[in-house]
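In this section we walk through a basic example: taking a raw amino acid sequence and producing a predicted 3D structure, encoded as discrete structure tokens. The instruction is simple. Fold the sequence below.
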Amino acid sequence: VQLQAFGGGLVQPGGSLRLSCAASGRTLNTYVMGWFRQAPGKERQFVAGISWSGGSTYYADSVKGRFTISRDNGKNTDLQMNSLKPDDTAVYYCAAGTGYLNGPYTYWGHGTLVTVSS
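The resulting token sequence is shown next.
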């Protein structure tokens, strides 16, 4: 399984950005999908997770109400990020697993950088 996150970039505080995670190698419609992020000098942290059916989601408190995770059960999982803050600046990673929505995750993709700055 290969995962690739894309869609990062520079956005002003209060703005929006949509990240996508594309999977190749096999379909992931039976896997939990998640997004994580790692800011400079900090540990990687969980952001959001979604069940294989898309019927259940789970968010870190820091992004609840601002970020939305979704999947099309094909090979894409998206993260819609609204009301972005400078603290959201990080490299964002997508991941796939068979455990709980917040982990553990087995497969990891390369990250995409999100910078929130004026």
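Looking at the output, two observations stand out. The CA atoms of residues 32 and 51 lie 5 Å apart. The two ends are 37 Å apart (CA to CA). In the next section we compare this with other chains.
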